[in-house]
Amino acid sequence: MKMKRLTHLFTFIAAALVLMLVSCDDDQQIAMQLQGKWRGKITAENYYYYSRRHYTDYERYATVFYFDGKLGSRHGTGWEIDYNPYSRSQRYSRERFEYWVSDEIITLEYRDGTRAEISDYRFVNDGGSTYFEGYIEDDSDREIWFRLMQDNDWDDSSYSYYY
Q1: Which one-letter DSSP state was computed for residue 138?
Q2: pLDDT class for 106, splitting at 50, 70, 90?
Q3: Fewer Cβ close by (within 10 Å): the C or N end of the chain?
Q4: According to the model, what pLDDT value does residue 159 have?
Q5: Which of 23, 131, 119, 31 is nearest to 76 (CA)?
Q6: C-alpha count within 13 angstroms, C-beta hemisphere, residue 31
Q7: pLDDT tens-digit map of 3-60
Q8: d(Cα 138, Cα 116) in Å, to the nearest integer?
Q9: What mean pLDDT is predicted for residues 134-163?
Q10: Any residues with CB less than 8 A from the CB of 66 and at least 6 apart, and which?
Q11: Which of these, 73, 122, 83, 115, lies nearest to 98 by C-alpha position?
Q12: Span 134-144, average pLDDT
């Protein structure tokens, strides 16, 4: 009888552990999906008026985002590198940030205090690759669109000398 109770107890504990390990909320799943290196393009559209005329200017950057965090966590740290896509020697910036996911909104807070939110996004599997695409909202009046492909093999060692 004692052996039977012990077996039931171990079965219950094992089942509880399995449920704890596999049941993540949406924010945890998003944070885990973000982890790794993502490279691609960011396009920022600037609107301005000059002499009663509307002008639109586009800034295009190649970029790499890196998200790091503990498994099951909703937050972590990372960095972003923006560079000229036609000349890897022309580096624009490398910025470190902290990020967190809350109510399915990804918030990035950079070291200089700048915040950006990513709330309109999706993860897409296309041709064997995973893409992260959407819009970034920050304090500027620009519309910022991105499309990044997960690429954990991307080598950033050529950039570390400059940052």
Answers
A1: -
A2: very high
A3: N
A4: 47
A5: 31
A6: 24
A7: 555 565 555 565 554 445 556 899 999 999 999 999 999 888 765 555 455 445 556 7
A8: 5
A9: 75
A10: 36, 37, 38, 78, 79, 80, 156
A11: 115
A12: 85
Q: Write out the two tokens for 142.
A: 């620009």
Question: For residues 101 and 104, what is the distance between their CA atoms, to the nearest angstrom?
Answer: 6
Tokens coding 34? 């973000």
The residue-averaged pLDDT of 69-73 equals 88
Amino acid identity at 138: D
Q: Annotate 33-68 with three-state secondary structure.
A: HHCEEEEEEEEEEEEEEECCEEEEEEEEEEEEEEEE
CA distance 27 to 31: 6
Among the residues of the chain, which ranges form H helices? 2-22, 26-34, 157-160
The encoded tokens of residue 148 equal 């990044």
